[in-house]
Structures are given as structure tokens and as C-alpha cells.
Design goal:
1 helix, 16% helix, disordered N terminus, 4-stranded antiparallel β-sheet, alpha+beta, 5-stranded mixed β-sheet
């Protein structure tokens, strides 16, 4: 089977198939995200503070105390929803602040995001997952924020500034 679909200077079949393979998932994700975000109007998420700041810790990290999130719709808590919490510029600030998972692992792992389920009151505390390290965020050149969004949705529910000073 020839590589080119319309002569030696034409567009190759490989190029057409590659382009389609790149575009189709993006289109599907866009449709799914729009449907998920439109499914629940009136949702309001909030962190317990507009900004959080911690002192540098040792290299192993300490809990970032005091970080909580709640989600309501029409003034009533939304229980059991799965929310993704992410740190902007996570790679740049990985020595400053990160999420840690260790369930079933010998060594904890660092992540830039974590998915958590809200409790019966429509809230969750991040203290047991969010860690602070030894590198001040100003040394990284980044100005990170903590974001919350429903899993499967592109809509950001809440944002809070975070820093290690």
C-alpha cells in the first residue's frame, strides 16, 4: 500500500491518521467536560481561607495544617462528590508543597494533584495529604495556587494562594 494518498507530494495516510488520533480525544474531552460542568448549576466551592502560608520544613515534609474545602449547592452541602485538588506549577514547587499518598506503599509518593471524596457535610480536610517541604516558594520562581474542581469537569470551584516562606 503506498504511503501517499495523492502522489509523492500529497498528504500521507500516516499524517491523516495521526492528526485524527490527536484531535478526536480532545474533542471528546471537551464535550464531556462541558456536559459535566453544565450538569450542576449553583454549585459553590470554598477553601477555609483565601491564602495559606507555611514555614519551610525538613526534606521529608510536614502536614500543611488548616486546609479544608467545602462544596454546596443552593446553600446545602453536597456529600459524596469526588473533587480533584491540584497545585499549579506542581513541578516547579515540588520541593515546597505537594500531595502525598502512601496507602499500601513502602515509600510515600509525591503528586501535584489528588482526588478526594467529600464527607456527609460536603467537606474534606487536606491536612493528611498536603505536605510542606524545605524550599521556599519564592526560590522556585512560581506563584502557586491550590485549585479544586469536580472530577470529570473543567470548572474550577475554588482557588487559594499557597506559599512556603
Amino acid at each position: 500500500m503506498p504511503e501517499s494518498s495523492d502522489g509523492p507530494r500529497g498528504v500521507s495516510r500516516r499524517s491523516v491518521l495521526y492528526s485524527a488520533g490527536v484531535l478526536v480525544p480532545g474533542l471528546l474531552l471537551g464535550v464531556h467536560g462541558a456536559a459535566a460542568s453544565a450538569a450542576a448549576p449553583g454549585q459553590q466551592g470554598s477553601f477555609s481561607a483565601a491564602a495559606y502560608s507555611w514555614h519551610p520544613a525538613d526534606a521529608t515534609g510536614i502536614e500543611a495544617a488548616g486546609v479544608a474545602f467545602s462544596l454546596t449547592a443552593g446553600g446545602r452541602p453536597l456529600a459524596g462528590r469526588r473533587v480533584r485538588f491540584s497545585i499549579s506549577a506542581a513541578d516547579a514547587v515540588s520541593g515546597s508543597v505537594w500531595f502525598e499518598t502512601s496507602e499500601g506503599l513502602k515509600r510515600p509518593r509525591r503528586h501535584g494533584y489528588v482526588d478526594l471524596d467529600l464527607d456527609g457535610n460536603g467537606s474534606v480536610r487536606l491536612d493528611d495529604r498536603l505536605r510542606v517541604g524545605p524550599v521556599p516558594t519564592r526560590n522556585t520562581g512560581a506563584d502557586p495556587v491550590l485549585r479544586a474542581q469536580l472530577v470529570g469537569s473543567e470548572t474550577i470551584l475554588a482557588v487559594a494562594r499557597i506559599s512556603v516562606a
